[in-house]
Structures are given as C-alpha cells and as structure tokens.
Amino acid sequence: MRPRTLLVGVLSAGAILALPAGVVASPTLSRLDVPRDLKVVSYFRADAGWTEMWTDWRPDRIDADLARAASLNANTVRVIVQPDLFGYPHPSVKYTSRLAQFVSLAAAHGLHVQLTLFDWWYSWEDVAGSKTWATELLGPYVDDPRIAFVELRNEILPNQATLPWASAMIPFLQGYLRDIPVTISVAGPDPPSRLRLLAQGLGWIQPDFWDIHDFSGDGGVTYNLIRRAQRVVGTTQLWIGEAGYATTTIVSGCGGVPLTVSAQEAAQRHFFSVVSWATHATGLPDAGVWVLGDMTPKAVPDRPVTDTNPELHFGLFRLDGSAKPAADTVRSVFSGGAPSGFNEGFEQAVTSASGAAVPAEWSLTGNAEFAQDTTVAAEGHASVRVTARHVSRAASVSIVPPAGAVDLGAHVTVAVLARRSEAKGSAFVVFEWLNRAHHVVGRSASKPSAAAAGAWGELRLTTTAPRGAAYARIDLVVRGTTSPVWFDRVSFSR
C-alpha cells in the first residue's frame, strides 16, 4: 500500500455523495495489482467517439463491444470523461448515471475500468473547481474495486500552466481515492523527454506509476523508449498506457510494407509482437491497446475527417465487428505470451498494390518484382522470390524482428537460406543498425552466397550492436542480376 498524505479540508459539507443509480460494487471483481496486472483496451464506440459516446448513449451497443474486449483476455477497459460535457464544476446526474451504467456493464463482462479524467479541458488555473468536479464525479467509486485506477490527464504537456495544476491534483486524488492508484500520461514524438520535463516539474510529487504512450511506427524503438523512460522515473513503476498501429492504406508505420489492407493489418499484428517483446524484456506490464475498434468519420466530434484519416483505423476490430489479425496477437499477449517469432518462412502472404501475393510483415525495397512463391521452398510450402529489374540496382526484403531491439554491445546472429536461378549476381544478408530516430548508424553484411545455381545455401552473419543503435533490421539483398533469387527459413537470435 502506498503512503498517503493526510488531506484536511478537501471536502465541503455534503460532498459525500449518494451512489448514482446503477452503481453497485461488484463482488466478483477483486482489486488488481496496478500496474503489474493491467491488460487494458481503450474504448470508443465505432460511430461515437470522445464526447459523442456520452451524448449518443447506446448501452446495448456498448455492452456488445465490451464483450469483444473481454474476448481479448483483457481485464480492464479504458473510458474517457470530458468535464465540459459532464458539467463543470458540478457533474450532472444525466452523465454521472451514464458513467455508472458503463462501469456496471464493464463489470458484468469481468472488466475493471481505467477512468481518464479532464479530457479536452484547459482551465489549469482553477484548482478549486477541479477538486470539486473530481470529488463529485469520483465520490461513488472510492474504494470500489471495479475502478482499476484513475488517470488524471491524458497526454499532458508539461509547462508553466499545467505543472502547478498537476502538482496540486495528484496528491489530492491520491488522498481522496485511498487505495485506487493515480497516474498521468505523456506522449509525443519523444515520450521519455516529455516524461523528464513532467517529473522534474513535479519534483517530490509523484503519481503511483508513470504512463507513457507509444506510437512508434514499427515498434523498433519501443525497447529504447522504455529504457530511457526507466532512467527518468527510477524506482517508480512505468507503464505504456497506449500503443497502437493504424491500418490505413494512405500512410504506413512500416516503410516498404504495401499500402493495402491485408499488408497493413499484418504490420499491425507485427507491431504488437515487437512491443510485447519490449515490455517483457524490460519488466513492464503488458502495454495498453489503442483502441478496441475502428471508427467512422462521424465518431470524431471536434472536426471534419474523411474515412481515410489514420486516426480511424487503429482498432483491433473492423467496422463490421470482425477481428483483425492483431486481435489474436493481443489475446496471446494478455494470456501471458510474448510472441518472438515473425514470418520467418514466408508462409503467410498479403496482397501488394498490384494484387500479387507477397510475404506478410516484410518490407519490400527496390525496383523489383517481389512474390511469395509456393512452387519453390527449402522447407514448408513457400519462399520469397526477388527479381530485380536492373542489374545495377539492389533490391531487398527486410524486417525488424520482435527481439531486434538492442543495448550497446549486444551480439546478434541471423541465418537464411538463399537460392539463385543462375550463377551470377549476389545474394547476401545485411544487418542495418538504426538509432532511436530511425536513422542508420551502421551496417554489417555477410559474404555472398556461394551455392551453385538451383541449390540452397546458407547465409550467416553474427555481429555486435554499435554505439547509438536502438534496434536491428534484417535485409535480404539481391544485387547484380535480373534472374530470380529465393530466400527461405530466416532465423534470428540474440
């Protein structure tokens, strides 16, 4: 149990509120050990995000969605509250009752609730009003095990306006909520740097654990991000409260992955494998998932968007309710597994922009024809075939393996089978070392394949992470030939 500062005079007379209709402490949910036990999915309705979820209230739709969240082996669902909608500084019964119903619906599916406060709210100077609003909203849930924890503010920007407010509100909520943990989150292009600003600005005041958000593209820098954040927070626990990958066909979080639905959905699955390896390797709880399902443009209430907007495509479930491949990966992670494998044998295929079948999860680079080839395989039923269109230009397929993140001096090995159709040109394997800004800081290459034409030969490379490297990318390279070259059975070890 955390130490608490005695707060005197924080509640005015009459501030102990009656429970709104529908709030009944669930005897079936025991308190979680937060953040260690967390398996969280953030939630908005597909056609009603942010404030729209509360104004266009559809408990039957929410109930069905919460069943999907529970099917992922999640134990907590995150819900976000906006003071200006709920009523500030005194929340209205209309919306507190809807929140109460949401908490009850979640508990019926075995889900605790992460309650995120002060969304879309910027009156930082009004500490008194903030305490009144939080007290009246949270009063019915003090000591309620259905509330896993409270997030004071989502993705706060640490500055001269926000830091005094956060310094007052964090200990206030900790004293008021007693055994319900309190956190605050940061995000941005470099979350550890923003976390440092927040921690330094708060001084001796700390939340019960720190929360950072990770939208790092292919996930290669997640391990480095965590290590840097851990150095900032010291012994205080750390959690990734949001991690996500948009399956949009407009932009890609993984350069070289085709901009098709099937390819981007496979990349999303790979992202969660990379992130889960990083959290397990650094001792963190499982990352929180952003977000349960895809959304329609109508779901965004504060500005017009089109259906191509990446923000609408982070879901584990499609608009029709069917699961994307990443749902199975998250389900496995939430069951205690951290996938370390990838499409090593090129057995899984996705569709390229031209309609060809190409290996899932792999990036395709260069002027070449790439294809999953089910007529040639060293083992299993497929390989990848690379046919460059110009002798003078290299072409490659590449991937960041889930366990590809490194510390300085880490030793890694990759092995792959290669087969040339003619005894000319080169086929070899390369490690590209990238830093936390995704810039290449080093390369190591194997000797080219010496196997006879039509025969499989092994390429092997062992090397050491250079200074500044955050993660390794495997490149399977073809150069100096326009004849087909095949690769199969990739293995990676640390």
Structural commentary:
The protein has helices at 51-55, 59-71, 83-86, 93-108, 127-138, 162-177, 191-202, 222-233, 261-281, 325-334; strands spanning 40-42, 76-80, 112-116, 147-151, 182-183, 185-186, 210-214, 238-243, 349-351, 357-359, 363-365, 368-373, 383-388, 395-399, 411-420, 426-434, 440-445, 456-464, 471-479, 485-493. With 494 residues, it is of the alpha/beta class. It folds into 2 domains: 40-334, Glycosidases (TIM Barrel); 349-493, Jelly Rolls (Sandwich).
Main attributes of the structure:
elongated; Jelly Rolls; 5-stranded antiparallel beta sheet; 5-stranded parallel beta sheet; 2 domains; TIM Barrel; single chain; alpha/beta; disordered N terminus; 494 residues; 10 helices
Any guess at the CATH architecture of the largest domain? Alpha-Beta Barrel
Number of strands: 20
The CATH class of the largest domain is: Alpha Beta
Structural class: alpha/beta
- Radius of gyration of CA atoms, rounded to a whole number: 25 Å
* Helix count from the secondary structure assignment: 10
Order of helices and strands: EHHEHHEHEHEEHEHEHHEEEEEEEEEEEE
Poorly predicted ranges (pLDDT <50, ≥5 residues)?
1-27
What is the overall pLDDT average? Answer: 94
| Number of individual domains | 2
Terminal residue distance: 38 Å
Using the coordinates shown, work out and report the CATH topology of the largest domain: TIM Barrel
Coarse shape: elongated
Question: Strand order, biggest sheet?
Answer: 1-2-3-4-5
In this structure, how is the largest beta sheet organized? 5 strands, parallel
Strand content: 15-25%
Full CATH superfamily name of the largest domain:
Glycosidases
Helix content, binned percent? 10-25%
